[in-house]
Structure formats: C-alpha cells, structure tokens
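Issue 218. Parser rejects a valid record. Input:
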Amino acid sequence: MSDSTLNAPDTATTDAETTDAAPALRGPLGFGDRVQLTGPKGRLNTITLVPSGEFHSHKGMIKHEEIVGLPDASVVVNNTGEEYLAMRPLLSDFVMSMPRGAAIVYPKDAAQILSLADIFPGARVVEAGVGSGALSLHLLRGIGATGRLFSFERREEFADVARANAAAFTGAAPENWTVTVGDLQETLPSSCEAGSIDRVVLDMLAPWECVDVAADALAPGGVLICYVATVTQLSRTAEEIRRSGLFTHPQSSETMVRGWHVEGLAVRPDHRMVAHTGFLITARRLAPDTKLPSLKRRASKSEFSDADMGTWLPDLAGDEAAAEHTWTPEAVGQWSKSDKILRKKAREATKLAEQRGALPSEPDAQA
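Output the parser choked on:
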C-alpha cells in the first residue's frame, strides 16, 4: 500500500542523531514523528523526522527541518518545486508500511476483530500469536490505558519485531502489554489466573489445539475469536469448539472490502480489491457446568459422523501421522521468511523505534 524509508530507495534518511522526545499524537510536526509524504501521483512515502535528516526522491529533496513545526496535514515543497502533502500516518497506514516478520492482520480484519470480540477499554485480552504486532496495536488502542494485553508468541524473532513496531508507533514500550515467548498451552496457565480474561484472540496455525486452555482462562461470557486463513482450518476449529462443550455455537464470517472510484461522473467500483485475507470464528464461554441447548434444525439426510469428518479432517480420524503432515504452514499456504530476513526486519523495526526515541524494553523471562 505504501512505501517506507526502509523499503524504498528514494525515501532514505541520514544516520543523524535521534531525538529523546516522545512523538506527539496531534499538533505541529516535530522530530521523532512519523510523517507520510504523498507525492503528486499519489505515491506514499513514510519517514521519521530526525535532526539533519533528508528525504530524497528522483524529483528532489526535502530537509526534515523544513517539515518540523508545520501543522499536521500541511503541504511542503522540495528543492525543485514538487509539492508533497505531509501528515501523521493513521494506525492503518503504519501497520501497512512497518517492517514485517510475519504476515499481518489487515486493518479490515483487525476492525472486525475489535467489533466482533467487543474489545472495550479496561478489558483483559490474551492474544496468540503476536506476529509483527499489527493486531497488537489495534488491541492496545481498544483496551485503552486501563486494559491489559497478554501476547504470546512461539518465535523470539517475531516477538522482537512486534515489540519494536509497537514502541515505534506509540513512542514508548506500552506498560500494559507483555509479550511472552513460548507455547500458549504451556505458558498461559502460569501467566493469567483462570477465569480472569475477558477476550482471547487466536491468530495461529492450529487454534483448535488451544480451545481448552483458552476456555480455562476466560471468564463466563468471555469471547473467543480465531483468525484462520483456509476453510480446512475454519472447519477444524469450529468442530473443536463444538466438541469441547465449553462455548456457544461458533459463528463464522469473512470480510471483503471493495473500494470505489468516484470522480465527477466516473463512478464505478475499483478494478482491484482486498478480497479474502482470512476467516473469523467467534464463540462465547459458557458458565461452569452449563450444557448448551441443541439447535433445532430441520431433519436432513446429510447428517455426518466422525468417520465422515475424518475424511475431511485427518486428525479427527485418529491418524496422527497424517494430521502432522496436514497441519503445517506449507500445507495451508503460509509463506515463512528465512531467519536471515527475520533478523533484518528486527533491525529495521528497532531502527524505527530508535528514531522515534522509543527503544523497546529488554525482554525478561516472561516478556
């Protein structure tokens, strides 16, 4: 969607000294602020304002000090007369241009998660896995300063990228956010008291493996919401939620966004759209010892058995070897980056945090 100084050769900044001031959320632009420059052809370039820094493109140069002090959403002119619109990026802009260690949850899906899970100020939320931190930033916005976000991630490299991205956006390491490196099934019981969590958000390869531990952590009436990419993952997750007997009947959906071109009488749908990115499946935690009433459905000849489900979902047929081969990132079409690229993305994210004057805190045993 947009280019950043880390990815585009025409948006480089100098290795100047950084500022210690936390970036402002409103008011005049200053050193440490992230600024989105929109050129005449609509191309987006995201930079961090630093002392002695410069923004270069093939059409000229703008000194960062010429942007500092301008009101947000001002026009700045480079040394060849080219005009750029300078604005602080929105959260959706930031997550689309920040360094990525893993595929991100798109803003359209993050917005649905906040709505369907009813993320509210003061909520205690568990998230697994953290990926590059895109969903974490949206959840932190939703829970506010009085809430608490517990994120769990299996890979240290992803956790490093997410911490740095969060610090770069907020201007400091969020005090109400902890990132625990480890398997959710092993680390959640020791990190959160049973029945103390309001919402659990699972963005992982096999969320059905964590249904029981999520149920233990959730308070009665709490919401479980899972984000999965394929219909096989969706089906497997729904069946496990039903089999557990601990939740309401799961509800599934996907969100597709189609933009429109509106210019004079030329009003039509865009030729390109952000279509399928993932499915969302939600359910609410039942009170202890509560048995969910069966759904009244019209009689059907298409009732299925466990054996039928086993032909579709190998692990339900008891074939552990087949299940292990079936539920892999490659099998469901997830592309993973090499360790070398992950280390590079972690360095890029850390550099952004340094430019913003917001170095992430050192991880401890639980973060």
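Fixed in the parser; the record now loads. Residues 1-21, 360-367 have pLDDT under 50 and may be disordered.
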